[in-house]
Amino acid sequence: MPTSNTSEPPASDAESFEYIVVGAGAGGAVIAARLAEAGKRVLVLEAGDDPLAPQHAPPPSPRSLDADYQVPAFHPFATEHPGLRWDFWVRHYASDGEQQRDWKYRREHEGEDVDGVLYPRASGLGGCAGHNAMIIVRPNNADWNHIWQVTGDPSWKASNMAKYFRRLERCRYRFFLYRWLDRLFGWNPSGHGWSGWLTTERSLPLRTVFDWRLRWAVRSSILAAAGLLPDAVGRWGWFDKVRGDPNDERLVDPESWGLRVPPMSTARHGRTGPREFLLDAQRRFPANLTIRRNALVTRIDIDQSTRTATGVVYREGVRLYQASARPHGRPGPERRVEACCEVILAGGAFNTPQLLMLSGVGEPTHLQEHRIERIHALAGVGRNLQDRYEIGVVSRMRTRWPALRGATYTTADGQYRSWRRWRSGNYTSNGFLFSVLFPGKCIPVLADVFCSSLLADFRGYYPGYSEEIKKTDYLSWLILKAYTHNDSGTVRLRSSDPLQRPEIQFNYFEDGGETTEHDLAALVNGITFVREVADALGELVEEEVAPGRHLFTDEQLRQYIRDTAWGHHACGTCAMKPEAAGGVVDSRFRVHGIDRLRVVDASIFPRIPGYFIVTSVYMIAEKAADVILHHPDAGRPLDAR
Ligand SMILES: Cc1cc2nc3c(=O)[nH]c(=O)nc-3n(C[C@H](O)[C@H](O)[C@H](O)COP(=O)(O)OP(=O)(O)OC[C@H]3O[C@@H](n4cnc5c(N)ncnc54)[C@H](O)[C@@H]3O)c2cc1C
To answer: Does residue 27 have its Cβ closer than 6 Å to ligand 1?
Structure first.
């Protein structure tokens, strides 16, 4: 019988660190780097490898892992690269009939019974920040104030959280005078950071500027979009004043709608992020930071009598987790390592709840189903799974975009050479042109519909989707519904085998009531909006291929949305709320009822924040470092407290 934990004293020969961080993704890498900088002895255990300097050769692939990781335009290929990818298969609906209406649904894939829709994740140093689209958009103030309301902890107030964005960012796309005014006089109206670890840039490839057709298309779309927004003149004034910057503090919340040009997390137009920060911290503080790759944590060791996390158990091996590309390596023997201060979980919204449940923390009947010995009953583990709803409106153009001539999205073409030699050209961009934000219906002030245009054929995630990105005669609008009302998704164990993926059920549009109607209505508005913008392109467009203009009534569009929506910002499965309200962690990231165990990743959000989630994850990791380091007991082993 698989038991999760014992109350035996730890083996005396086990290695010991002050902090053990599980997972080196957006949350884990940042907190580990900050703790190591502060002089703590930290061990990072990461199931994946380093994409740029792998310990083990990645599985054979025609594509270069190095380029897919670094080149902004190659991010879709990074999500399908066997050296990085973790494929999850998720259900949007419990009913088979409803689920199978989605053409992206697969019953079987590569000889495996998958029964779901592909949900890409990345494993390796940087986690999903190693394959994401690098879009950096800070959340609204309302998101932090909501956590303050839920927890009663005033340190979550937006006015306090703003400093974390400044701390982490190294903005390189706003007027340099701002940097000096901040440095000399402490005057910083834009709220940007100038010397953090996350470089943010924008890209404006000359080829797109010189492509008259694209220029005309962008101009016409912007004018059409601006004309559709209320108070077009006032909003244009704001756009001009802050250069369409979604991260300018003056635009967060009350002015959160209008036209935007989101920046990317790139340094000299190559991907940068938590991986680079973590490795830099290791270079600066080698004695403090140990990083073990290809190390899958299978259990948290929790002392039953004191309910205290004392360490973790892990297994070494290449691509051990079933979500990784095959071939899977052979799992090495179980190894145990002790944390004399704390264990910090940062495995992401799917893996952190899985690990807690495997370790005996979760809903008692569910643990019993899998014959896992219960350490602490915590019903909220794996509940409250949330995501955006996303929809694509895709048009085929009459001719190819001249700016994309010769683009093969491989290392074999001139555009790649131009990126590699000069860091210039189309591949410096992630493909997004500009975005429009507006309130879809439900929240009158906060924008909840985020529409972005990109030069590609993109209709969601399914095996091989990245090949479609190579088409050079398409324009897609990605409509993202923020502040969705669905919090009934779940992550549950499929088995007690830690190498198996959990069962993920999003329960889309679940409540069927007014709030579902709000979400659907907002998405219908999004489709109508981008269609009107696309109409401004007149003869340039050959045909709308998805949804297709034959679908035009509200009812038809709602059904289309239900059938094809997807998401990629999963969060909330270890929510920061009081235990009685279904919470898993308190406002100091501590797991309710278990001592010396924290969670610092996307799973802690009680409500899905903002529009793109990774900036919020970076900010909470910065906050968690403050919470841990400024606590009077920080760094003191338990028996000394
Ligand atoms: C395709 C895609 C594109 C995206 N684009 C954007 C974007 O442009 N902008 C944006 O803001 N957000 C984007 N996101 C979302 C964002 O990148 C993620 O939400 C964010 O990285 C989540 O951070 P995390 O720390 O919770 O988890 P992750 O970044 O997923 O990190 C978790 C890490 O933990 C490791 N791990 C898990 N379990 C274990 C274990 N048991 N033992 C050891 N290691 C373990 C994993 O290997 C992984 O490296 C995108 C997401 C996807 C999937």
So the answer is: yes
Task: Compute CA distances 22 → 57, 117, 486, 588, whole Å.
Answer: 23, 27, 28, 18
Question: What CATH number is associated with residue 222?
Answer: 3.30.410.40
Give the nearest ligand 1 atom to 23 CA: 34
**Lowest mean pLDDT across 93-107, 195-209, 277-291:** 195-209
Give the distance (Å) from ligand 1 centre to CA of residue 401. 33
Whether 297 has a binding-site annotation, put simply, is yes
User: In terms of domains, do 242 and 345 share one?
Assistant: no
CA–centroid distance, 58 to ligand 1, in Å, is 19
Amino acid at 297: V
Q: Are residues 398 and 415 in the same domain?
A: yes
Model pTM score: 0.96
Average pLDDT for 282-291? 98
Measured in angstroms, how far is the CA atom of residue 298 from the centroid of ligand 1? Answer: 18
CB of 359 sitting under 6 A from ligand 1: no
User: Poorest-confidence range of 97-111, 457-471, 513-527?
Assistant: 513-527
Residue 486, ligand 1, Cβ within 6 A = no
> Is the reported ipTM for this assembly greater than 0.85?
yes
Residue-wise pLDDT for 367-380, tens only, equals 999 999 999 999 99
Give, using CA atoms, the residue closest to atom 48 of ligand 1: 127
State in Å: Cα 95 to ligand 1 middle.
28
Please indicate whether residue 618, judged by its CB atom, sits closer than 6 Å to ligand 1: no
Q: 């696309």: which residue's tokens?
A: 534
Q: What per-residue confidence (pLDDT) applies to 227?
A: 87
- Residues 422 and 379 placed together within one structural domain of the fold: no
Q: What's the start-to-end Cα distance of the chain, in Å?
A: 36
- Lowest mean pLDDT of 45-54, 67-76, 88-97, 174-183, name the range: 174-183
Helix (H), strand (E) at residue 516? helix 514-535
Cα 265 to ligand 1 centre (Å): 15
416 and 542 housed in the same domain: yes
Same domain, 600 and 620: yes
A 10 A CB-CB count for 177 gives: 8
Q: Which of 205-214, 286-295, 441-450, 515-524 has the highest mean pLDDT?
A: 286-295
Instruction: Tell me: do 406 and 417 sit in the same domain.
Output: yes
Q: Which domain holds residue 315?
A: 1-162+290-386+484-508+570-641
Per the structure, the count of domains in the chain is 2
Pocket lining: 198 vs ligand 1, CB cutoff 6 Å: no
* Residue with CA at minimum distance from ligand 1 atom 5: 132
Domain boundary among 549, 564, 579: 564
Could you tell me if 498 and 533 lie in one domain?
A: no
pLDDT of residue 210: 86
Q: How confident is the model at residue 4 (pLDDT cuts 50, 70, 90)?
A: very low
Question: What are 28's two structure tokens?
Answer: 């884990």
In short, whether 120's Cβ falls inside 6 Å of ligand 1 is yes
In a domain? residue 265:
no
Mean pLDDT of 587-609: 98
Task: Give long-range contacts, CB 8 A cutoff, 24+ apart: 587-592.
Answer: 587/147, 587/151, 587/152, 587/153, 587/155, 587/156, 588/153, 588/627, 588/631, 589/344, 589/620, 589/624, 589/627, 591/356, 591/361, 591/378, 592/376, 592/378
Which has the closest alpha carbon to 524: 506, 516, 567? 516
